[in-house]
Amino acid sequence: MQGSIMKGIIQDGFGSPGDVLTVGEVDKPGVDDDGVLVRVRAASIHIGDVYGIRGLPKAMRPIFSSITAKNGVAGTDMAGTVEAVGKNVTQFQPGDEVFGSCKGAFAEYASAKGEALALKPSNLTLEQSCAIGVSAFTALQGLRDRGNLQAGQTVLITGASGGVGTFAVQIAKSLGAEVTGVCSTRNIDMVRSNGADHVIDYTQQDYTTGGQEYDLIFDNIGNHSLKDTRRALTPDGLLLSNGAPAPTGWFGGLGHPLRATTASMFVKQQGRAFLSMANKEDLATLRQLAESGEITPVIDRTHPLAEGVEAISHVGEGHNQGTTIITM
Predict the structure, then answer these.
(1) pLDDT of residue 166
(2) What is the fold of 5-132+291-327?
(3) DSSP element (H, E) containing 315
């Protein structure tokens, strides 16, 4: 498998996407005994990809470097067709359509661990399936595990039109909650059609001063103080602070989650910051939710690989509706 060439989005150092990314030719990855070589058909971009390309905050650069493929290709979430499998992989065979995560997703081929993949949902396209990645794991694990969201409870979701938010609205509904989404004026209809029971236009109303109380607030934006946001909770409610201002410098952007974690030691309404982790059990759960129609990825726009750098820059601007896709 080694030695052949493919096209991909190559990262050369840290910086703005337009400065450090190029579409070019790199070595096609091999496949180890526990791996799967995937002919990538589509890859999705989440905001963490952009932060990793920018290398911000700088304190996280060792971690960012570890999630870029050896051939310099960025990207983590993809879907495609199995090209070859290692000798220890029995759950897949060449020709299977799969989705999941790997290093170097923004390329024509990617090598993934077998346990990081699943057969794509039968009712979704490969383009839709690749969007069920980091954003979906974050929504599922935040609401179900960290938030312990139960049927009949009320939940407010900020950033309801973004990558995480669109999944969070749907997953909260699947858990039986009454959902309020917060978004801008242009996204109201989309958030409502996504399943939200109520929608707050943040350009017209501040949910922290509106008087309504919620059992859970899943904050994907972080543009209010923790104290102000907790005002909108019931006495036994919980704030999950997933969002933060865009990172800068060495530690800029880490303050919000660090304050949340510190406050969680003293304030019962404050949940600690968390990072979602991909695992095969939750990947299977997300596949099941997709096949049952309880979640459907919201696609903002689709770009061919040749326009991949522009697509990544668009996500970095922070105004995408749902998920942006790169097709190979």
Answers:
(1) 97
(2) Quinone Oxidoreductase; Chain A, domain 1 (3.90.180)
(3) helix 308-316
